[in-house]
């Protein structure tokens, strides 16, 4: 998009308002992505915040090329993965259990608005290995193609396709049982 | 069993249409403060102009979006489905039908999920009929559609949609919208709901349980049970008008409200100002597609040819710095806005115009065309060639004209 080209030009020259505009433009999509990955609005917000702070640290120092949204998506996905792994290492409480507890206490001003169908999907997604979940979310929510996902996950395209296929297969069995109730 | 392909579409549909995230209070302030402090620490300070968000949203401004929302709104009312046997009660549904026969104004609130019910988040509509019962005006507020809150006013065949978070108003003449709104108004008329209920009851297609209020001031409840839950209608015992509708599903032993609609303001006068957008914030960009002619007329050109022509003329207008023309080709964006947007570059020439292809989002109904444009940075003179893929489609309400709606 031409606007992104202009934003990159301005960002490369250290333009703070370009940075603000980039944030305004992509924050919603990135927050959605982070919430979908982590199932936790607070963690997701931290991830988006940290990603933009890292991004801001590079203003005027790196020359942004390529697709701006892909660049930011990569930042968020990497941060989210780190957060997920850190939580797994702690093993005090599983992230999905934490989410279950947390979502009960979400108020009107602090809420991820989930309807019943999303709730079903969220629960099923929580059953998947993280790599499969990440692949499905990137492809289905973010519209990322398999090749960029492969680059992002540092694996082959075939591995990504397998993760996607296995993930959908598992979702199918999980959701079929739910849908038939 | 669902196939993998179906699951894939199901997942995509939920993520696209049913997954909405609301950030916590002050999140924006916190992040912006953090990144600005970070930039400050990097000792990178430059003055620039601010840009307002008027991008990427063109593709989201199709009037069909809120027409679709209106249909969903109406669908709540039309959700009387499967019933069993009949139970005769003292209260007769005909009384409500008679009572609601002369509705001229309504105020409606829609709760779209159990969370919305619990949190008091609702979409809202004011509708007005003329004395003959024909739909006349509406104001609708959608709190949480995927592309942000919207206020829409409609009257005299002109719809004005204010997309709050995108700071944009689109004004269009839209006959399809008019039909949708008239249909919705008919469906929202409580007498239609009760008429449907009554007719189905007469045919023995439903099991209706009617409960008179036990206390003074209480409401009559009409309960219709089906296999997945029940629909509950609340009727005012005095006026016999429907005041609330709930769709409930069984969750274990308990019923949970999944959708609700409240109807009030029967025939109460509505200030005409309600049907206007009033004073808009200064930073809102107005795309007026009614008082100015948008895009290019197709004439005898094929769809592919008109797309090439629109793209070529748009970029040539930018090269010529004819921002008025560029604005008209780009959905009606004011020229001063275009000038602000593009102040950092100077467009030099069209390097190539590629092949017309369907737009990446088929829901837009548009086409897309890759255009290689050479430009230079206004300050540094740095030259670059960028491929831009404008999305181009027929102008809403003027199907003989085409304009750019996305991709810039």
**Order of strands across the main sheet of chain B:** 8-9-10-11-12-2-3-4-5-6-7-13
State the share of residues found in helices of chain A, binned by percent.
Answer: over 70%
Number of self-contained structural domains of chain A: 2
Count of distinct structural domains of chain B: 2
The CATH architecture designation of the largest domain in chain B is Clam
User: What's the helix-strand series of chain A?
Assistant: HHHHHEHHHH
Radius of gyration of chain B: 26 Å
Structural class of chain B: alpha+beta
| CATH fold-level topology of the largest domain in chain B | outer membrane lipoprotein receptor (LolB), chain A
Number of strands of chain B: 21
Give the largest interface pair and sizes.
Answer: A-B, 64 and 65 residues
Helix tally of chain A equals: 9
Secondary structure tally: strands of chain A? 1
Strand content of chain B: 25-35%
The helix content of chain B, as a percent range, equals: 25-40%
Average pLDDT figure of chain A? 79
